[in-house]
Write a structure and sequence with these properties.
Layout: H1 2-6, H2 8-19, H3 27-47, E1 51-57, E2 63-68, H4 72-96, H5 100-118, H6 122-141, H7 144-172, H8 179-187, H9 191-208, H10 216-231, E3 234-235, E4 238-244, E5 247-252, H11 254-260, E6 265-268, H12 269-278
Antiparallel strand pairs: 1-2, 3-4, 4-5, 5-6
Length: about 280
């Protein structure tokens, strides 16, 4: 029940995406995940000494990345796993930090850069240009909570879509010339084996996603409330919130917290006594 309370927004987004899965509303998100998939192939090639020749996407929610050189095993394995990792990172950064606007803007810049360098076909050219510019506009003009919400939607859609795509392409339709099919051709083993391994990894990631905690600053403020109400001791802009072995932790006022990033100051008993003498009691 605590997990549901802490992640109601993520659960709501997941439910909405599932309900609208076969509609045009989710179509741009699916194509965006395919872009992340193909970009992952390209980055794997670059990181293993190769290069990207071209990237393309299709209206049928497919795509391809043409690479030269690099480690073939890593390149073929990186598509599903890479888009999953990108989705999880977007989700984690949205949940854990305040860098939402910077991240969405960076994502938009990456899309535009990839478009200029590697995309030539009409549909992906239009899709990536419009999406990249839209991300930049949202990051520049709209508030951080809106950017945060968009990143959560993209991250969750990727996390949802990857296992579905793996099952569809490598297990349900194992005859398709998928990444797993080509991996089986070059390195042995059945297509379903490689697809099954990727599916297990993606499901394991989804299983552990509820362990993600709410924003640190929100949680730190929340955990102090029981101490404040139980002790009922307050001073001008300061509250005693707990003690252990003659040590006292002081929670500063909201104005101070904004400067101290939510951290508490730890005072010894003599320091606390001095504070008693110099700070009037507020009722």
């Amino acid at each position: 029940m605590e997990t549901l309370k802490g992640h109601w927004q993520l659960i709501l987004i997941t439910v909405v995406v599932f309900v609208l899965w076969s509609t045009l509303a989710v179509f741009p998100l699916k194509v965006l995940v395919v872009f992340m998939h193909e970009l992952s192939h390209g980055l794997a090639a670059v990181f293993t000494g190769g290069s990207i020749e071209a990237i393309s996407l299709s209206v049928e929610e497919g795509g391809h990345a043409i690479t030269r050189g690099g480690n073939r095993f890593i390149i073929l394995s990186s598509g599903y796993v890479g888009s999953l990792v990108i989705g999880v990172l977007l989700l984690l950064i949205a949940i854990k930090t305040h860098a939402d606007r910077a991240l969405l803007g960076l994502f938009g810049l990456v899309m535009l850069l990839v478009t200029v360098l590697y995309i030539r076909d009409p549909f992906p050219l239009a899709f990536c240009s419009i999406t990249g510019l839209a991300m930049l506009a949202v990051a520049w003009h709209l508030s951080r909570p809106i950017n945060d919400f968009i990143l959560r939607i993209i991250g969750l859609t990727s996390v949802i879509y990857v296992p579905y795509d793996i099952f569809s392409d490598t297990i349900a339709r194992s005859e398709l010339r998928s990444d797993a099919y080509m991996l089986a051709e070059q390195f042995g083993g059945p297509t379903m084996l490689w697809g099954g391994l990727w599916l297990v990894v993606s499901l394991a990631v989804i299983w552990f996603l509820p362990e993600i905690r709410i924003r640190p600053e929100k949680q730190s403020m929340k955990c102090y409330e029981p101490w404040r109400s139980a002790l009922g001791v307050s001073y001008a802009g300061q509250s005693v919130i707990g003690h252990s072995r003659r040590k006292i932790w002081i929670n500063f006022s909201d104005h101070s917290l904004s400067r101290l990033s939510g951290h508490c100051k730890r005072l010894t008993m003599p320091e606390l006594s001095q504070m008693h003498e110099t700070t009037p009691r507020v009722r």
